[in-house]
Amino acid sequence: MAYFRELPDLEYQSPFSDRNSSLDYVRAKNIFRRVKIRDDLQKVFTIFNKYTISDGARPDTVAEALYGKSEFDWVVLISAGIVNVRDEWPLSNYDLYNYSYEKYGDNLNDTKFYETIEVRDPNGRLILPAGKVVDANFTIPDPANKVQNLQQSKVVVAINNYEYEVRKNEAKRNIYVLKSEYLPSFLTDIRKIMTYTESSQFIDSKLIKASNTRIKSP
Questions:
Q1: Hey, how many other C-beta atoms are within 10 angstroms of the C-beta on 87?
Q2: In the chain, is it the N or the C terminus that has fewer CB atoms within a 10 Å radius of its CB?
Q3: Of the candidates 207, 183, 184, the residue with the CA atom closest to the CA atom of residue 195
Q4: Rounded CA gap, 15 and 50, in Å?
Q5: 114 forms bridges with which residues in the sheet?
């Protein structure tokens, strides 16, 4: 991922057993220098577009479609607020079925829970919203019956394990992505954030040196 090229470096005391002395350092990317979209900007819809991830799409293919370069996959993930790609990016339909079967086995079609269906009275007024998780025997008075509370109507449907996993996966498809016209200024701001200011650890704008805990004070 090209994102790691944007990270500044850190000289850290060598953890390797073949080091020559306690003064040996290794140079690595400072993975603790992480960026995210400001919370207040996430609600500014003028700089974001709503995007639906198609079946089988990956962050790099979305970046290619949006920004013309697959290496901006990290921009897609940051603007979508995704940290753990494995858990937060939708699986393809094929992979989802395999994942679900591995998780549930022969119980794939067993009931996971029950939920309500939408119920309205003859005048179109909402009596019961859809999607409320309830017990299997949940009932309400039949709104079409003239004698209230006399006849009970079953208003729940069973959701099986596979339907549950499909729903979770589908909910991951809708994300917000940075509009392409804001990409240059976004990259400029990121690169400013990724530079170091002068401090006791400062070597240059892209490198600092960590304290050496192996050297004891007299």
A1: 8
A2: C
A3: 207
A4: 45
A5: 134, 158
Q: What residues contact 80, with CB distance under 8 A and at least 6 apart?
A: 175, 176, 177
Q: 108-144 burial string, b = 16+ CB within 10 Å, else e? A: beeebebbbeebeeeeeeeebeeeeeeeeeeeeebbe
**Whether pTM exceeds 0.70:** yes
DSSP 8-state symbol, 16: -
Size (the chain), residues: 218
H or E segment and range at residue 66? helix 59-67
140-192: pLDDT as tens digits: 866 555 444 434 467 899 999 999 999 999 999 999 999 999 999 888 888 88
**Which of 74, 53, 80, 92 is CA-nearest to residue 173?**
53
- C-alpha distance across the termini of the chain, in Å: 44
3-state DSSP assignment of residue 67: helix
Rounded to whole angstroms, the Cα distance separating 35 from 25 reads 26
